[in-house]
Design goal:
Keywords: Heme, Iron, Metal-binding, Oxidoreductase, Peroxidase. InterPro entries: Cyt_c-like_dom, Cyt_c-like_dom_sf, Cytochrome_c_Peroxidase/MauG, Di-haem_cyt_c_peroxidsae. This protein is of the alpha+beta class. The chain folds into three domains: about 160 residues, no CATH class; about 170 residues, Cytochrome c-like domain (Cytochrome Bc1 Complex, Chain D, domain 2); about 180 residues, Orthogonal Bundle (Cytochrome Bc1 Complex, Chain D, domain 2), CATH 1.10.760.10. It has 20 helices and twelve strands. Helix 13 crosses helix 20 and helix 15 crosses helix 20.
């Protein structure tokens, strides 16, 4: 019954709805049918050709718009398509007969009347196709045995390759209240939220640095300056530790599908504590959070080496060691006593009637609104291509895209609309810096997801990053192990070889003389290197230098246009009167 329904549905699509078709034509000069650039309509995004085993063609050939694919024989080919990737319908296979003529043409018309040659409205034939080569004309006939092959394939044939994702759209993101976003912009750039009032969210996530800080491991509270010019501070205020992990980019964190945050996933959507999230705050997370992005904004304020500071230096840092939720009322009070902030909150939030009503949830909801508004990006050339503009990518980028979703298997992890499976994988990136591990762990290292889950199988695994604007977000990896995008791609292709060849000069670390001996202690630990090398989740993939360059070219096509210029931008000043990082 299911097969009958499939047949009837596609018969309906073909005759009544008139779906576009990919046409298979016969090349009269070479007597070889091919798919030509002029014969593939712009509505067809990607597909795979599947041919009978005796047709002399590899059973896995991915093609895109404009691809030229020669056939060694001209019997029957089938087109495997993914739902919504080619015709936006539940299509699986199409059947074509090359260079139909004579009595075969009558048979072709019979099959067309029955809808058999269009089982999935996959492709059609040019009726004027001719084959000038007599010796191959016998191969142009339709053999009934192939119908059995096709019908059997409908049930059991595997899918080949990975289809292109659907285009990102505004509906894929949480809605933004612009008035709240304007408050969030000021708070994002205001050092008021830090313990010693000397570092803002934007210090480590600056729009001019791809929403990061340009460093492998950042310099947090106590440092001076911005980006790669940032210094570790002086005197009693100087840093005593680098931030353990690379500052993650903020692009598209307002997407509805995101349910986990941070490199190790220590914040996730869950009702384990009956407050909507599984987080380091456990049951002490405040109520009234709009999203996981708002929840994320709570935690840098409580981190000693990020924004809180030394416990002896300020009230916020001291409160962290009392209980984590002791910090947030102090931050909220700092904000609400500033008249300009109070007036803006009263105007933007329905449940704020006076300054005393402002709490930490209002503050982080405003910051999340700004981050969602400012860093949403789906206007790259790749996005334009997904939207139907075949000219948005050049030839090298298209070749790189084919590799990314095919031979290079990048899309096995970088999948979906956001180009991330939001899961955790071990890439065997070299250890350096202070690391982040489980409490009371005597070894200086970064155990990744295991530190949050406490499961051994999660050791050294980190969340798959999303890739919009990836060319702007160097250094790469959870610890910024590579400052060059091509080097990061090559590491993925052969993690073990790259790990052994990695040099400490690849890391972008501002000079901190008193930390030099500690910076690469984990990298030099032979036992830890052995543990790390045993946990790689990806196997070697061989690409030529030209193919690597094509993949990198495709990754550059993920860079946005208007979105990277900023929407609200960097404010000239903030209500606290403190210095804006810029």
């Amino acid at each position: 019954m299911g097969l009958l329904n499939l047949f009837v549905r596609h018969l309906f699509h073909h005759f009544l709805k008139g779906n576009g078709r990919i046409r298979i034509a016969s090349d009269s000069g070479k007597c070889v049918p091919h798919v030509g650039a002029h014969e593939v309509r712009s509505g067809h995004a990607a597909a795979n050709l599947v041919v009978p085993a005796n047709a002399g063609l590899s059973p896995r050939v991915t093609f895109e718009r404009g691809a030229q694919i020669p056939f060694k024989r001209t019997d029957v080919v089938t087109l495997h398509t993914e739902a919504q990737s080619v015709h936006h319908a539940d299509q699986f296979f199409g059947l074509g007969i090359a260079a139909v003529g004579g009595w075969q043409k009558l048979r072709h018309r019979l099959f067309k009347a029955l809808g058999v040659h269009q089982i999935a409205a996959g492709f059609d034939l040019r009726k004027d196709g001719r084959c000038a080569c007599q010796k191959c004309s016998k191969n142009n006939a339709f053999h009934p045995v192939f119908l059995v092959v096709i019908l059997g394939a409908l049930v059991c044939a595997p899918a080949y390759g990975t289809p292109l994702p659907q285009p990102l759209q505004e509906a894929d993101f949480n809605p933004v209240d612009l008035e709240k976003a304007k408050i969030g912009q000021l708070l994002f750039f205001d050092p008021l939220l830090s313990g010693n009032r000397n570092i803002a969210c934007a210090t480590c996530h600056h729009p001019e640095m791809g929403s990061g800080d340009g460093l492998s491991l950042g310099i947090g509270e106590g440092g001076e300056g911005l980006g790669r010019e940032r210094t570790p501070g002086q005197g009693d205020a100087k840093i005593v530790k680098r931030i353990p992990r690379n500052a993650p980019a903020l692009w598209n964190l307002g997407a509805r599908e995101i349910d986990v945050m941070f490199h190790d996933g220590r914040l996730s959507v869950s009702d384990i504590y009956e407050n909507g999230f599984d987080s380091p705050a456990q049951e002490w997370l405040p109520e009234g959070l709009d999203s996981i992005l708002a929840a994320q904004a709570l935690f840098p304020m409580t981190a000693e080496f990020e924004m809180a500071g030394n416990p002896k230096e300020n009230q916020i840092a001291g409160a962290v060691y009392d209980r984590i939720d002791s910090v947030w009322p102090i931050v909220a009070k700092r904000v609400r006593v500033i008249p300009e902030y109070a007036e803006m909150f009263i105007a933007a939030f329905d449940d704020v009637d006076q300054a005393l009503d402002i709490n930490i949830s209002h503050i982080v909801n405003a910051i999340a609104a700004f981050e969602n508004h400012e860093f949403t990006s789906f206007d790259s050339p790749f996005d334009a291509y997904l939207g139907g503009d075949d000219t948005a990518l050049n030839a090298e980028q298209k070749a790189g895209m084919a590799l990314f979703f095919g031979k290079a298997v990048c899309s096995s992890c970088h999948s979906g609309k956001l180009l991330s499976d939001q899961q955790f994988h071990a890439l065997m990136l070299p250890h350096f810096g202070p690391g982040k591990t489980r409490q009371w762990d005597p070894v200086v290292r970064d155990v990744g997801r295991m530190g949050a889950s406490d499961r051994l199988e999660d050791a050294y695994r980190f969340r798959t990053p999303m890739l919009r604007n990836v060319a702007l977000t160097a250094p790469y990896g959870h610890n910024g192990a590579y400052d060059d995008l091509e080097m990061m791609v090559r590491h993925h292709l052969n993690p073990r070889a790259a790990f052994e060849a990695w040099d400490t000069n690849n890391a972008v670390l501002p000079e901190v003389p008193w930390l030099e001996k500690a910076d690469f202690r984990p990298f030099d630990d032979k036992r830890e290197r052995q543990r790390l090398s045993a946990r790689a989740d990806i196997d070697e993939i061989v690409l030529s230098d030209a193919e690597v360059a094509q993949v990198v070219a495709f990754l550059h096509s993920l860079t946005g246009t208007a979105s990277v210029k900023g929407r609200l931008g960097v404010p000239e000043s903030v209500p606290s009167g403190l210095e804006v990082p810029k």
